[in-house]
Amino acid sequence: MYLPTKRLLLRDFEERDWHRVLAYQSDPLYLRYTPWHYRTELEARSFVRMFMDWSQDQPRHKFQFAIVLPPEGRLIGNIGIRMSSPHAWEAEMGYELDNNYWGHGYATEAAMALLSFGFRDLHLHRIFAHCIAENTASARVLQRVGMTYEGRLRECEWMKERWWDRLTYAILDHEWWARM
After folding, report:
1. Which CATH architecture has domain 2-179?
2. What string of H, E and C letters represents the secondary structure of the chain?
3. Rg of the chain, C-alpha, whole Å
4. Which residue from 128, 167, 169, 174 has the fewest beta carbons nearer than 10 Å?
């Protein structure tokens, strides 16, 4: 499956993508808001394999796309929308981006494409996302794509030897369509 945007291509994962995933997931800036302290080749291969397996489910209810810069075909991150079942009315969106590509609007562009896919093609009613409260850049992306801040879950996530707060954002189908 392919979802083109103005500057990006969102596509299903391929086996060879693990190299680029491992490269950006090994960066300390990326690791800051993840439960991992480091990543291995086996973990990156398993990560990509999981997404490839999801793409084979029928009916499909989990879509995790590689974010690719079309001119050179360079994978710079991933973004996904996951329903709890094939006919669910809501889904969770999540994304990650190679820190070398932060600040260029790529996460916002990919998130806009995924919201459009969720409401137009999957006919969802609600799409939500979470981010670590300290990850203000991620929260700004969610705000820019029109999601509404729904709340802060205090100290709900344990990682890296401390508790973290998590923010929740969401957008409803009629809110999305009103923006179009």
Report:
1. 3-Layer(aba) Sandwich (3.40)
2. CEEECCCCEEEECCHHHHHHHHHHHCCHHHHCCCCCCCCCHHHHHHHHHHHHHHCCCCCCCEEEEEEEECCCCEEEEEEEEEECCCCCCEEEEEEEECHHHCCCCHHHHHHHHHHHHHHHHCCCCEEEEEEECCCHHHHHHHHHCCCEEEEEEEEEEEECCEEEEEEEEEEEHHHHHHHC
3. 16
4. 174
Instruction: Give the least confident one: 65-69, 86-90, 149-153, 170-174.
Output: 86-90
Contact yes or no for 10/107 (Cβ under 8 A):
no
Name residue 106's amino acid: Y
Beta bridge partners of 148: 170
